[in-house]
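Check this.
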Amino acid sequence: MKKLRISQADLDDANEILDLQKVAYQSEAALYNDFSIPPLTQTREEIRKEFESMVFLKATYQGRIIGSVRASTDGDTCFIGRLIVHPDFQRQRIGTQLMERIERHFPTAGRFELFTGERSENNIRFYRNLGYQEIRTKKLTDKVVIIFMEKKP
């Protein structure tokens, strides 16, 4: 996609990223018939607090944020979370570019870890194609099981 720009987001982008997150996670919520999942209930205050401890990247197109990903480290592990791309822009390699960029942002990480829902077959396939492998599962609720995946550089 021409004119796509990936850069580090700052606190001024928090509200727009949260609004995008709530659009992007509708399909996940529908998979589980649960619209109370954390990405949909996160508040403006909560996402602003995450900017204190996480690196946020944004993908902008024509001045609008259409994608984002966030990550933090603990020891030699980089934890990647909430990769989002606006539904109108999915399947155009934006998610791949965001993932590649966030991994490069943490060059000393010994491993990368993320999670996705067990029913999110497209997400699981996407992460596998980027070199991630399933390492464990965790039951969150009666409806939701998450799969943790890792990649070692």
Remarks:
- The mean pLDDT is 95.
